[in-house]
Structure formats: structure tokens, C-alpha cells
Structure to design on (194 residues):
């Protein structure tokens, strides 16, 4: 027979605001999951109610140097559009950088446009796995458009229409005809595991 030794439970650091991460003395390898902010949706005085795109995600396993301080930038959620047919704003880019460290980053979802144009989802870069966020959307029943749901992210599916993004990096939902305030996207996140 062989004896099986249970591995230690990993430490998980969830970073929701920009700052730094000092690598602990015993850590030489870590997993980074970096997600950009979700976009905000536009107002809808007279146009098709398009929802906002989600932020992208990059996942990377990297060698790290104990004592080195790594810089984390967490992308903000895109602000909602305001006024008559105001555009939604793009989500911010999230990233991890450091000396001798290849940058891991993920862009935020593109701001949804009141002109009924589709905006691009955020994308990850520099990771071993690079993922795109959910795209903008709208839906129709016959010839009548209804508000789309916000684009999802690695951390959760799209939110419902007429609601702000909730899970990290999710885009704001589309709003109903006549609404003069769009919905905000959710901020991104950086998760470090070791």
C-alpha cells in the first residue's frame, strides 16, 4: 500500500482595488486570474436597447520571486450612459506587472453605443489561457426590440436586462425604451493563488 498525503489548502488572494502584492517569502509560483471591468449600457430614448459587453480574462501560472512587489491594476466598471441616447462607457483594463515579469492583462468591455452599434467584448492577453467576455446583445419579439442582457465574464453569466452588472467584469443590461439612464458595468478583479 502507499500512503497519500493531503496537499495544503492553497492561499487565495482576491484583489478588488488597485495596489501592490508583496510575494511572500515561501512562494515561488502562483496562479493569476485577471479580469477587466464590464462596460456600461446606453440610455434608450428612441433606439434599440443594446446591452453592454463583459470584460475579458487572462489566466496564467507564473514563477514569482519572494520579496518582489507586484503591481495590480483593477479595471473599473464602465459608467452608465446618461441623457438622451447617451453612450455607455467602456470598462477598465486590469493587469499585473512586476520587474522581470511578463505582464498579464485583460481589457474591459467596450462601451455600448446608443447608435445601435455593437461594441466589442474585452479580451485577455499575456496568459496561458486568454478569454473574451460576453458580447453586447439585444433581443426581439417579432419587430419589437426588448432590452438585452449584459455580457457575461469568466466569473458569471450575463445579468438580467435593466440591471447593473453584479459578478466581476459583467456588463450592464440594456434598458427599456424611454429610460434616460443606462446600467453600470461591474468592476474587474485579480485573483492570486499559491
Amino acid at each position: 500500500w502507499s500512503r497519500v498525503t493531503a496537499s495544503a489548502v492553497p492561499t487565495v488572494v482576491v484583489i478588488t482595488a488597485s495596489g501592490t502584492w508583496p510575494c511572500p517569502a515561501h512562494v515561488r509560483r502562483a496562479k493569476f486570474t485577471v479580469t477587466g471591468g464590464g462596460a456600461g449600457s446606453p440610455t434608450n430614448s428612441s433606439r434599440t436597447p443594446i446591452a453592454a459587453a463583459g470584460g475579458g480574462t487572462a489566466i496564467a501560472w507564473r514563477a514569482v520571486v519572494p520579496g518582489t512587489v507586484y503591481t495590480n491594476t483593477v479595471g473599473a466598471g464602465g459608467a452608465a450612459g446618461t441623457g438622451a441616447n447617451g453612450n455607455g462607457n467602456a470598462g477598465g483594463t486590469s493587469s499585473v506587472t512586476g520587474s522581470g515579469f511578463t505582464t498579464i492583462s485583460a481589457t474591459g468591455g467596450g462601451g455600448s453605443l446608443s447608435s445601435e452599434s455593437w461594441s466589442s467584448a474585452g479580451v485577455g492577453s499575456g496568459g496561458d489561457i486568454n478569454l473574451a467576455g460576453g458580447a453586447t446583445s439585444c433581443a426581439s419579439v417579432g419587430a419589437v426590440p426588448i432590452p438585452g442582457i449584459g455580457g457575461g465574464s469568466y466569473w458569471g453569466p450575463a445579468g438580467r436586462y435593466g440591471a447593473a452588472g453584479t459578478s466581476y467584469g459583467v456588463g450592464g443590461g440594456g434598458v427599456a425604451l424611454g429610460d434616460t439612464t443606462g446600467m453600470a458595468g461591474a468592476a474587474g478583479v485579480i485573483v492570486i493563488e499559491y
